[in-house]
Amino acid sequence: MNLKNLICDIHKNVAIITISRPPVNPLNSDVFRELTQLINELENNEEVKVIVMTGSGEKAFVAGADVKEMATKNLVSLYQMNKKSREAFTKIESANKPIIAAINGLALGGGFELALACDLRISSDKAKFAFPEVGLGIIPGAGGTQRLQKMVGQGIAKELIYFGEMIDARKAQELQLVNKVVAHDQLMDEAIAWAQKLAEKPVVALQMAKTAINSGSNVDIESGLTIETTAFATAFASEDAKEGLSAFTEKRKPEFIGR
Q1: Where are the transmembrane segments (predicted)?
Q2: What is the pTM of this model?
Q3: How confident is the model over 77-107, as pLDDT tens digits?
């Protein structure tokens, strides 16, 4: 596909998506559309096992939505933009492959929401996070009010959204918003190392683990256990499960084939 706002490089089963709208990579309708289309393509690319998402430059992962674009819209056109953002982030969250956010700088507003939609988050020690929307007279509109509270609880979510104050990477890790914080110059090496490690895992098992966790988070415990049982059975029926169990009993390294 023809990408104007994204760069996609594929190497050793890992796709690296870079949001490229320098200097701070704001999100607009075109970015949302390209993200949705690109994730769709990568889902169907058997070469790609894991996706890493980052921002261009040294300053920002994504410093929010494109406020200049938003300011020109009426309610109807803003609704359409918001719908595109929801489609893009839902596609990222539900993609059949793990997606790692490599947060290289500012993750503000929509950028924070984008990171929350990913499966795993590795942060540069220079990164900063905030939801500044309330100070602009609006609120997070691309999943922030919902995904944030599920990660940190309502109290912390309300504090971060109401006040809109910036937190650093270490505070984000303390709140379990990011999985790991590394030195800025080690960020991409660490993200790619995680991706390559995941790329060696059996595909169906990863897909079913993601399905069970994501779908189970929105239902009661009994329904969640039913989802887990179905996902477990699907993984167990895969060829890789047979290989993994055989390799364990034979005390050898498994050779997974992705089926």
Answers
A1: none
A2: 0.93
A3: 878 888 999 999 999 999 999 999 999 999 9
